[in-house]
């Protein structure tokens, strides 16, 4: 797509990112809520057991602790009884954890050691407080379930997010590929339409917003084609219908001129000249109309470009010499080109004809053939009055005559024919100064390779 970026990819990627963020937030919320609930349950168990042990006497506490340890199949709750100075008295916790406050509060501790074989607790909730006798009771509950839950949720989060991202990426690529295929088809048709083929229509393929837009554009193209057809038909009819009576009038004037030689025939000769100018303009108009409707490429073939340019140069060199204009050609081997040879010959001939026409005696005209990375370029230089920058686009329009050359004979259609041929080939036409910062002279260049639409 060149420099263009598909909005479909960005939009789906944005939705995927939002979905992934929301999913991660939800899993994180469940993670913390589950861990918090299990921790609260452990605290409740510790609190209940603390009240139970407080209700027993000193001897009964030791017996209860021993009975619990012997009857336990799965060690989840741990207990330890210590004297005032911290000496172990009973239970499966041999020592008070360093730094654990004896304040009846619930605290999370790590690396809790137990006398039970294989009961090394990595994470636990613990509470230590003094009994009425002054002894210290330590209660702890294993939080291994909470740790496993956290690890399970974390694994699920990583694996789920990874799978979701893979599926989302595959979905993005699939939807983007399908969307881009449709957009590429629409763009190809739109490029043909932009280059003058108004008979093309955007292909509908469904019922989404692109098809709605395609139907609207197609309806607009139908109306534009109808209006352009009516205008073209009117102009062509005028040019064709007027050419016949003008041709008959010219024939009559030519006969009258032969019958009235000398001074009496001078007005007739001037009238003949004016009719010739009008007929030339009508022929050029019809030629431009014909070129603008030639969307087919049946006349295209592959040929040697240097040979074509050499033929055009040889044809116009004598015309330049008759006007005392220095004519030069600088041609390199630019390889072959796929184009309509006759039309390209006509366009180059018009370019040289214009250059010779507007160059005064003693001036110079040159045609160059250059080879560039993209393809071949043809340049026609002249030392005439030049074309001002604000007129360079207008000179390719029909009947436009620059103020500097309005007094010279011509129809104002030569470069219009050139522009029509260049558009048909999808080449590029450039009009510049003959040399940078020059006040006179013109360079007209043709880039002989397909041009992309403006980005």
From TrEMBL:
Q: Specify the protein name.
A: histidine kinase
According to the UniProt entry, what is the EC number of this protein? 2.7.13.3
Q: Which organism is it from?
A: Pararobbsia silviterrae
Q: Which parts of the chain span the membrane according to its record?
A: 12-32, 153-177
| Lineage of the organism | Bacteria, Pseudomonadati, Pseudomonadota, Betaproteobacteria, Burkholderiales
Gene3D superfamilies from the UniProt entry: 6.10.340.10, Histidine kinase-like ATPase, C-terminal domain
Q: Which InterPro entries match?
A: HAMP_dom (IPR003660), HATPase_C_sf (IPR036890), HATPase_dom (IPR003594), His_kinase_dom (IPR005467), HisK_dim/P_sf (IPR036097), Sig_transdc_His_kin-like_C (IPR004358), TCS_sensor_his_kinase (IPR050428)
Q: Which UniProt keywords apply?
A: Kinase, Membrane, Phosphoprotein, Transferase, Transmembrane, Transmembrane helix, Two-component regulatory system
Q: Pfam families in the record, alphabetically?
A: HAMP, HATPase_c
Q: SUPFAM superfamilies recorded for this chain? A: ATPase domain of HSP90 chaperone/DNA topoisomerase II/histidine kinase, HAMP domain-like, Homodimeric domain of signal transducing histidine kinase
Catalytic activity line of the entry: ATP + protein L-histidine = ADP + protein N-phospho-L-histidine
The HAMP domain sits at: 177-229
Q: Which Gene Ontology CC terms are recorded?
A: plasma membrane
Q: Where in the cell is it found?
A: Membrane
What SMART domains does the record point to?
HAMP (SM00304), HATPase_c (SM00387)
GO MF annotation terms: phosphorelay sensor kinase activity
Q: Where is the signal peptide?
A: none
Where in this chain does the record put each Histidine kinase domain?
A: 237-446
């Amino acid at each position: 797509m060149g420099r263009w970026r598909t909005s479909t990819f960005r939009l789906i990627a944005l939705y995927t990112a939002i979905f992934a963020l929301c999913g991660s937030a939800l899993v994180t919320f469940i993670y913390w809520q589950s861990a918090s609930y299990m921790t609260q349950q452990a605290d409740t168990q510790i609190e209940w057991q603390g009240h139970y042990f407080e209700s027993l006497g000193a001897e009964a506490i030791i017996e209860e602790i021993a009975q619990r340890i012997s009857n336990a199949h799965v060690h989840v709750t741990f207990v330890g009884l210590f004297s005032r100075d911290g000496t172990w008295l009973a239970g499966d916790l041999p020592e008070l954890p360093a730094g654990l406050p004896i304040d009846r509060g619930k605290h999370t501790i790590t690396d809790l050691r137990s006398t039970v074989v294989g009961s090394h607790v990595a994470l636990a909730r613990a509470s230590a407080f003094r009994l009425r006798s002054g002894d210290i009771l330590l209660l702890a509950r294993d939080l291994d379930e909470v740790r496993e839950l956290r690890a399970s949720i974390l694994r699920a989060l990583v694996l789920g997010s990874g799978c979701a991202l893979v599926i989302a990426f595959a979905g993005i690529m699939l939807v983007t590929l399908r969307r881009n295929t449709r957009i590429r088809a629409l763009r190809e048709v739109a490029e043909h339409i932009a280059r003058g083929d108004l008979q093309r229509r955007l292909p509908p393929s469904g019922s989404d917003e692109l098809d709605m837009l395609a139907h609207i554009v197609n309806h607009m193209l139908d109306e534009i084609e109808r209006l352009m057809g009516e205008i073209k038909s009117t102009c062509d009819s005028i040019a064709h219908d007027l050419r016949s009576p003008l041709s008959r009038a010219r024939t009559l004037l030519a006969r009258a001129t032969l019958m009235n030689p000398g001074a009496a025939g001078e007005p007739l000769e001037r009238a003949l000249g004016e009719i010739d100018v009008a007929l030339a303009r009508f022929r050029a108009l019809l030629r431009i109309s014909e070129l603008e409707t030639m969307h087919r490429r049946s006349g295209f073939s592959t040929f040697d470009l240097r040979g074509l340019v050499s033929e055009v140069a040889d044809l116009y060199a004598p015309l330049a010499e008759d006007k005392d204009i220095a004519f030069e050609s600088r041609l390199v081997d630019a390889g072959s080109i796929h184009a309509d040879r006759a039309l390209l010959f006509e366009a180059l001939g018009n370019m040289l004809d214009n250059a010779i026409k507007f160059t005064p005696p003693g001036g110079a005209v040159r045609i160059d053939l250059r080879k560039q990375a993209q393809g071949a370029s043809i340049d026609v230089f002249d030392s005439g009055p030049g074309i001002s920058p604000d007129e360079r686009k207008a000179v390719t329009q029909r009947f436009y005559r620059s103020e500097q050359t309005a007094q010279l004979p011509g129809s104002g259609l030569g470069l219009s024919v050139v522009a029509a041929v260049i558009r048909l080939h999808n080449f590029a036409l450039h009009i510049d100064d003959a040399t940078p910062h020059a006040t006179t002279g013109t360079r007209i260049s043709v880039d002989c390779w397909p041009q992309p639409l403006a980005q």
